[in-house]
Specification:
It holds the Pfam family Glycos_transf_2. It is found in: Membrane. GO terms for molecular function: glycosyltransferase activity. InterPro entries: Glyco_trans_2-like (IPR001173), Glycosyltransferase_2 (IPR050256), Nucleotide-diphossugar_trans (IPR029044). The chain is α/β, with parallel strands linked by helices and 308 residues long. It folds into 2 domains: 221 residues, Spore Coat Polysaccharide Biosynthesis Protein SpsA, Chain A, CATH 3.90.550.10; 71 residues. The protein is 51% helix and 15% strand. The protein has 10 helices and 8 strands. Strands 7-5-6-4-1-2-3-8 form an 8-stranded mixed sheet, with helices on both faces. α2 links the parallel β2 and β3. α9 packs antiparallel against α10.
Length: 308
């Protein structure tokens, strides 16, 4: 098998007819005959799966992975990659924001440099309204500031990968997936190409809530720095509280009865206790975070049925 194309299904029915035509046409340009088209049904509530089942006669390369429920975009991607067999694996969203023909540029770029393991796409300029553009930029700046793994800004799903790279990616046992970080954490020789995204027909399935959840997932999966900050915050509060108590003690010694400690001293002591508790919680949190990353043993997705 020369090529595996992996994509996921969630409210995808409006795009599938055009996607199939353009994807197969792009593969013909590359003159690749041995390929498979893997669609992972991530609990899509529409009839995307039924539509593709009806297309199997026209497109015998179709391979449909039906998950038992909606696990999420990144988990469905992982399931698709795990069932791919191609020497090269092309990952793409089928909403047509990115043209399937980008595989032609990716494949040619790999042909120019045999050492490349991945060719991926990124946006030079983010599309969308003011909030979408700036929120996206803020996200990539934040994750790169917080994480030890440096991730290219405005990264796209679309990427062409070698089998060796995909196999290495699947070795990661992360239960909390953030593919953008995992793609670059494993290393290998990767090259980005600028891609201009189109405008999606209809509303995106990535709501503001889901985008916020993705950002939280990205931060908690790839950095423990917020916990470290909590620890240092506790240390700082404790230090200044101690100085404040010392100041009150010295003032009391100098001015004696003129200084009434009472309420002020109680506040200082309470703040000191808060600082100590925050420090200890930060330390405990760091260890719990490390344990949490190791002990989760549930599968990231469950396959209900495979249609080949």
């Amino acid at each position: 098998m020369k090529l595996s194309v992996v994509t996921t299904l969630y409210r995808s029915k409006p795009f599938l007819e055009v996607f199939l035509k353009e994807m197969t046409a792009a593969i013909k340009v590359l003159k690749i005959e041995a390929y498979e088209l893997i669609f992972v049904n991530d609990g899509s509530p529409d009839d995307s799966l039924a539509y593709l089942l009806a297309q199997k006669e026209q497109y015998p390369q179709l391979k449909l992975i039906d998950l038992s429920r909606n696990f999420g975009h990144h988990y469905a991607i992982q399931a698709g990659l795990a069932h791919s067999k191609g020497e090269y694996v092309f990952l793409i969203d089928n909403d047509l924001e990115t043209s399937p023909y980008v595989i032609v540029d990716y494949y040619k770029e790999m042909g120019k440099d045999s050492t490349l393991d991945v060719v991926y796409g990124y946006q030079e300029t983010r599309k969308g309204n003011f909030i979408e553009k700036n929120a996206g930029s803020l996200f990539w700046h934040a994750i790169n500031k917080l994480s030890d793994t440096k991730i290219p800004h405005n990264l796209l799903t679309e990427r062409l990968m070698t089998r060796q790279y995909v196999d290495a990616l699947l070795q990661l046992q992360d239960a909390n997936l953030f593919m953008g970080g995992m793609w670059h954490w494993i290393g290998f020789n990767q090259k980005g190409l600028p891609v201009k995204k189109g405008v999606r027909e209809g509303a995106s399935t990535y709501s503001i809530k889901r985008r916020a959840e993705l950002m939280l997932q990205a931060i908690t999966s790839f950095t423990g720095k917020p916990l470290e900050w909590l620890f240092y915050f506790g240390i700082t509060i404790s230090f200044f509280s101690f100085l404040f108590i010392l100041y009150l003690g010295i003032e009391k010694l100098i001015y004696q009865d003129e200084v009434q400690l009472g309420w002020t001293s109680i506040v200082a002591i309470n703040v000191l206790i808060l600082g100590v508790i925050s420090t200890f919680l930060g330390i405990i949190g760091i260890y719990i975070y490390k344990i949490f990353r190791q002990v989760q043993g549930r599968p990231n997705s469950i396959v209900k049925k495979i249609y080949e």
